[in-house]
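Sat 14:20. Reprocessing the chain from the morning session after the first attempt stalled halfway. Input below, unchanged.
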Amino acid sequence: EELMSRCRRIARAVSARGGGLPAVETMALPHDRGIEVACNLLDMDTTPAAEVRARVEALAAEEGLRLDSDYYTNKQPEEVLAIAASAAPGAA
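Finished this time. Tokens:
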């Protein structure tokens, strides 16, 4: 419970709604290995992923925690265009 409270504080401080980074939504999610601070980046031109990661890492350190790992699930706009172009009829 204490770990979840600490991770919720981190999530709140990172999110735009909590006064943190613009164009970022967050939540703390429990998993078998620990707590995930999930971040939804609404506009990566406004707030790049590296800035979000750095903020989460700094806030985790203030809470006496460390990042175990990170991952990305969404594609960059240029990646989406490349996938669409390769799937187009006649594409090689």
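The chain has a mean pLDDT of 90.
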